[in-house]
Automatic annotation (TrEMBL):
The keyword Disulfide bond does not apply. This is Pectinesterase inhibitor domain-containing protein. Pfam families: PMEI. InterPro entries: Invertase/methylesterase_inhib, Pectinesterase_inhib_dom, PME_Inhibitor. Residues 1-21 form the signal peptide. It comes from the Eukaryota. Residues 23-185 form the Pectinesterase inhibitor domain.
Length: 204
């Protein structure tokens, strides 16, 4: 599944990192205010969500794609750093390698979330199915957050510092923050989706 999802998502990579000056729609802003990092939410979504969109589904899906791209980008960076440290037999190698393993797991969890989100969007799914899908996505995204914390904690006690350490921490932290925002936006979509299905079924 990762091989099927990532090529499509990686097409967004360049645009995702060039977002300054983009116009943020009122609806995107209102949705991002529900997240823990609203400014980051708005800057990362501004150029990818239709300015006229009023669809929390679209916003949640774009946020998830952003999280995947950020995680893949960080994973690839860790591969480069890890390889260099191994060649130099640096004692920080194991910590970076462990972080790389955590980030690889994060990419898998995010890919699983993307697949499950497609089920959540399906109108033919029952309320029970939707709740099951939502629980899976919440679990996987929460695992990503745990992975990022384990990664950064793994560097405690190592003298590694300077630009390399700052870059690793900044990128891993960014993955954690966009994923936290994604989780909030997905939860918002799920709530609205359940309410919409409730009224469309004629229940009171």
């Amino acid at each position: 599944m990762e091989k099927l999802v990532l090529p499509l998502v990686l097409l967004l990579t360049i645009a995702i990192f060039v977002v300054e000056g983009a116009i943020v729609s009122t609806f995107v802003e209102s949705q991002c205010k529900r997240t823990r990092y609203p400014d980051l939410c708005m800057s990362s979504l501004a150029t990818h969500v239709n300015p006229t969109s009023q669809d929390p589904q679209e916003i949640a899906q774009v946020a998830l794609k952003v999280s995947i791209v950020k995680a893949v980008y960080t994973k690839n960076y860790l591969k480069i750093v890890s390889k260099a440290l191994k060649q130099n037999k640096a004692k920080e190698y194991q910590a970076v390698k462990d972080c790389l393993d955590q980030m690889s797991d994060s990419v898998s969890q995010l890919t699983n979330s993307f697949k499950e989100f497609q089920h959540m969007k399906s109108a033919e799914y029952s309320a029970g199915d939707l709740a099951w899908c939502q629980n899976n996505v919440q679990t996987w995204l929460s695992t990503v957050l745990t992975d990022t914390y384990i990664c950064t904690d793994g560097f405690n006690g190592y003298p590694m510092g300077g630009k390399a350490m700052a870059m690793i921490k900044a990128r891993v932290l960014n993955v954690a923050q966009v994923t936290s925002n994604t989780l909030a936006l997905l939860n918002e979509f799920a709530v609205r989706h359940r309410v919409s299905r409730h009224f469309s079924s004629g229940k009171n």
